[in-house]
Amino acid sequence: MKRALPDADTVKAAIDMVLEEAATRGHRPTVTAIERRLGIPHATFHRHYADLIDTHFRPHIPATTPTTAQAQSSEPDERREANLARLRKENTELRRTLALYEEAIRQLAIENEALRTGATVIPLQARHRRTSPPSS
Questions:
Q1: Are 38 and 52 in contact (CB under 8 A)?
Q2: Which residue of 35, 68, 71, 119 pairs with 114 in a disulfide if CB–CB is 3.0 to 4.6 A?
Q3: What does DSSP assign to residue 61?
Q4: Per-residue model confidence as pLDDT tens digits over 91-100
């Protein structure tokens, strides 16, 4: 058994109510709110009332102003680029530090094994290539 669909005037009244409520609450009006008010599934509503959405709903939606979050996200590219450059530099320094720690662990593992087996400990040259002194 099919339920009768509301007529165009009822849908327009629902659209007007949703627009008014959204303006009162400071929210953006949505088609979903209209569908809920009428108790109609989205596909059915779109199939039968798409023309009312285009002619009666969309023209009455107030223009949006960018929120502070959106305004902050459009910060100057220079600032973002400087931040990226700083992060890349930190990443490079962390990779160098990790390589030094890996070498130190390797040396200690060799010395530990030599001491456990009673062998003579011979200090080895580090494998890393350092071109500049460490920064503090």
A1: no
A2: 119
A3: S
A4: 999 999 999 9
Cβ-based neighbours of 18, under 8 Å, separated by 6 or more: 29, 30, 33, 34, 37
Residue keyed to tokens 């305004």 = 71
| Virtual torsion, Cα 97, 100, 104, 107, nearest 10 deg | 160
Q: Which of 23-32, 81-90, 108-117, 119-128 is least confident?
A: 119-128
- Residue whose entry in the numeric block shows the structure tokens 């509301």: 6
pLDDT tens string 60-78: 887 765 554 555 555 578 8
H or E segment to which residue 114 belongs:
helix 77-117
**Rounded-to-5 percentages of helix, strand, coil across the chain:** 70, 0, 30
DSSP H or E segment with residue 16: helix 8-25
Q: Kindly report the backbone phi and psi dihedral angles of residue 23, in degrees, each rounded to the nearest multiple of 5, phi listed first.
A: -65, -40
